[in-house]
Design goal:
Blueprint lengths: L8 H16 L17 H13 L3 H9 L7 H16 L4 H12 L8 H23 L2 H5 L3 H10 L4 H9 L5 E4 L6 H10 L4 E4 L3 E4 L16 E3 L2 H10 L6 E4 L6 H9 L3 E6 L2 H14 L4 E4 L14 E7 L14 H4 L3 H18 L2 E11 L8 H10 L3 E9 L8 E8 L2
Parallel strand pairs: 5-6, 5-8, 6-7, 8-9
Antiparallel strand pairs: 1-3, 1-4, 2-3, 9-11, 10-11
């Protein structure tokens, strides 16, 4: 139990160090560490955690030049990483940040590293210009991505990889999807304007906020007037575009954003499925908030014998598990948790899901294969192998969205089964 006041920067730095260390040890941010932080301190802790994780390799590059030998106390190392992030992004309060970091260090390893933390951070401030110049000259450290990830991007996107890297290192934009069953986009934009919130239209039902803000500040969010969803993700429902009354399967549905968007566009006989009951509960909760209805079931979509009743679907959305390399700015722990061999592992799982779900598509029906990846082995190469295996399949539409300031990275391929 920390003795630091929850409203202090020292508390935020300490909690961020704990979470950063957990990620470095292999734990995902999805495991809910932030939920265990004092609610009032959560926004500050989240900024420190996400900001420092996005800077993969950057902090260690600096520490390699500030320490005479590697630190064995992992949480102290992570405290230094989150504090270096804070110093670089809030230079006007440098001395306060150092003081608070030293106080946080007093809570770790019986305070044995407080002096070291103080010395390292003050040395950084004295040598900051020199150190940052050296960092900028180092391609790996300045890219802030693992070396294997960088190599894959360079191979797959030889012209666009610098822009992909830059997008992956930046904070993500925040976009909304207006529930058109509850009102028009123009009406909701006017409600935002009345609250002093600036938003611009994107796609058919989207609004891009000029600045991210907590969902609690969105008028009518709890009443289901709007959802948070990236414009790239909003493309899925329009690409699949099932007719009203169609029998539709969303096979990997959690947390339910694409499921809800499909139902907002048309009345459907929709089954939303995901592997774990806990993930299915998130789908149900989102649908209830939006006033939408679908059958929700926990099952492995690739094991047809455990769930399929033999009735074919008109349209299937297969938003398959992937490396999430196109949304790394939203999930910066991916840089720390993913390994090069994960690409092949995900590709195997994706092929298994594709082959199984193709069996439940009716002749003349369609399947939208989707990932939030920018790696070809999960995308175009995966579809090419599938088309070789399935002579009934034809490719109607294909697009690779690379991450930009306006949207995350997604891949979509709409497949049609011959009648």
């Amino acid at each position: 139990m920390s003795r630091l006041p929850p409203d202090s920067l020292a508390y935020a730095l300490l909690q961020a160090a704990h979470i950063h260390a957990a990620v470095a040890a292999g734990q995902s941010l999805a495991d809910g560490q932030l939920a265990r932080v004092d609610a009032g301190a959560r926004p500050a802790v989240q900024d420190l955690v996400y900001g420092s994780l996005r800077r993969y390799g950057r902090g260690d590059f600096l520490l390699g030049r500030l320490l005479s030998h590697p630190l064995t106390a992992e949480e102290v190392r992570c405290l230094l990483l989150v504090t270096l992030y804070r110093l670089e992004t809030r230079p006007d309060a440098a001395h306060t940040v150092v003081d608070q970091a030293v106080r946080a260090a007093g809570e770790l390893a019986e305070g044995r590293f407080s002096g070291l933390v103080n010395g390292v951070l003050r040395n950084f401030l004295r040598r900051e210009a020199e150190l940052l110049a050296a960092l900028a000259a180092d391609p790996l450290a300045s890219s802030q991505h693992p070396d294997w990830w960088l190599a894959e991007l360079q191979r797959a996107h030889p012209e666009a990889w610098p822009a992909i890297v830059a997008a992956g290192n930046a904070p993500p934009p925040m976009a909304l999807r207006v529930n058109l069953r509850r009102g028009t986009r123009g009406e909701y934009r006017d409600r935002l304007a009345a609250e002093g919130i600036v938003a611009d239209p994107v796609d058919e039902a989207g609004l891009m906020l000029a600045r991210p803000l907590p969902v609690e500040r969105l008028p009518g969010f709890a009443a289901g007037l709007v959802s948070v969803q990236d414009p790239g993700a909003q493309r899925a429902a329009g690409l699949l575009d099932p007719r009203p009354g169609s029998r539709v399967l969303d096979a990997c549905a959690a947390p339910g954003g694409k499921t809800a968007h499909l139902l907002e566009r048309a009345e459907l006989d929709l089954l939303a499925m995901d592997l774990k009951p806990s993930r299915c509960r998130r789908v149900t909760s989102n649908l209830e908030r939006l006033g939408l209805r679908a059958a929700v079931r926990a099952a492995d979509c690739a094991r047809l014998d455990t769930w399929w009743d033999g009735r074919a679907f008109d349209a299937v959305l297969a938003d398959v598990p992937c490396t999430a390399s196109g949304v790394v700015r939203r999930h910066p722990d991916s840089k720390w948790l993913r390994r090069a061999e994960d690409i092949g592992s995900f590709a195997t799982t994706q092929a298994r899901i594709l082959d199984a779900l193709w069996q439940v598509v009716r002749p003349g029906g369609k399947l939208l294969y989707a990932t939030c990846s920018v790696f070809p082995a999960e995308n175009g190469e995966q579809v090419a192998r599938f088309l070789e295996r399935q002579p009934q399949a034809s490719r109607r539409h294909e697009e690779q969205l690379l991450p930009t300031a306006e949207h995350d990275g997604f891949y979509y391929c709409l497949l049609e089964k011959s009648a």
